[in-house]
């Protein structure tokens, strides 16, 4: 019938992306979902032309122009999809350009925040009390049963030194791998709760030149505590009406696993 595909994914054999397309009064919108546990970068051809694509961030409200090229009546965009991530690609802005490439972000100084952390565990959950030195990684790597089986909120804290920023530069905090959600606090100011990868946010406005305090409140699932309570002779922390996990059930990675990076970025 001569109807072109609504969308096409390059290397579609190994890219099971899911799509929903909605026609807007002033353009088109595609919701793209990555249902896999692996990040992927894919080139996607959309059945639209004459309008520039923007990436809408449903968490922050940010709108970012996307690089693209036009081939006939189609617009080709490259999407960087996080594991189990999604994207809102919106074509609203009219354009007659056949190709668009926004100024790339350039990375400046990068601080690796691997050492100098302390941690405080939520009380009453079986973990050690007080402020303890901490290493980034899963709670399940610990030899201490209270830490290995901990489920709840753990607050990681450290100080860091920040130089002055050149005009137009921004500071981006990347927490790496987090299990499962993280509330970020900088100098006592709560910024955002990150609940999905990438666990990354702009912290520029909360930083000051010189010494700063960074806190990350990480909350994990309660599976590990249930497994801990099932261990022989364990003092139970939780109560369930029916047995849930066996003592030999696999533990879930938990905590601030990292690596944690603080990067200066800016347009070229």
Task: Provide a quick synopsis of the model.
This protein is mainly β and 268 residues long. Helix content is 4%, strand content 47%. The strands form 5 sheets. The protein has a 6-stranded antiparallel β-sheet, with no helix packed on it. Strands 1-4-8-7-10 form a 5-stranded antiparallel β-sheet, with no helix packed on it.
What does the model show?
The chain has 268 residues and is mainly beta. It has 2 domains: 7-102, Immunoglobulin-like (Sandwich); 109-267, Sandwich (Jelly Rolls). The chain has 2 helices and 22 strands. The strands form 5 sheets. Strands 13-12-14-20-17-18 form a 6-stranded antiparallel β-sheet, with no helix packed on it. The protein has a 5-stranded antiparallel β-sheet with strand order 1-4-8-7-10, with no helix packed on it. A 5-stranded antiparallel β-sheet has the order 2-3-9-5-6, with no helix packed on it. Strand 17 (181-186) and strand 18 form a beta hairpin. The chain is flat, with a radius of gyration of 23 Å. The termini are far apart. The mean pLDDT is 92.
């Amino acid at each position: 019938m001569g109807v072109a595909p609504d969308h096409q994914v390059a290397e579609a054999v190994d890219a099971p992306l899911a799509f929903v397309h909605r026609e807007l009064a002033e353009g088109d919108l595609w919701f793209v979902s990555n249902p896999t546990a692996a990040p992927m970068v894919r080139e996607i051809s959309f059945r639209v032309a004459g309008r520039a694509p923007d990436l809408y961030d449903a968490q922050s409200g940010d709108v970012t122009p996307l690089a693209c090229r036009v081939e006939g009546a189609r617009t080709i965009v490259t999407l960087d999809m996080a594991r189990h991530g999604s994207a809102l690609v919106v074509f609203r802005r009219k354009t007659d350009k056949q190709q668009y490439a926004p100024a790339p972000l350039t990375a400046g100084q990068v601080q690796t925040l691997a050492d100098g952390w302390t941690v405080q565990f939520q009380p009453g959950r079986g973990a050690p009390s007080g402020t303890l030195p901490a290493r980034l990684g899963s709670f399940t790597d610990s030899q201490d049963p209270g830490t290995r089986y901990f489920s709840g909120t753990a607050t990681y804290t450290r100080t860091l030194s920040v130089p002055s920023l050149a005009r137009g530069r921004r500071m981006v905090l990347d927490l790496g791998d987090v299990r499962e959600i993280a509330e970020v606090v900088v100098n006592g100011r709560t910024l955002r709760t990150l609940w999905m990868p990438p666990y990354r946010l702009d912290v520029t406005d909360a930083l000051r030149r010189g010494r700063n305090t960074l806190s990350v409140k990480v909350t994990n699932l309660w599976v590990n505590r249930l497994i801990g309570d099932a261990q022989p002779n364990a003092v139970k922390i939780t109560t369930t009406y029916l047995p849930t996990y066996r003592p030999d059930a696999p533990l879930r990675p938990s905590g601030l696993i990292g690596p944690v990076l603080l990067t200066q970025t800016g347009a070229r």
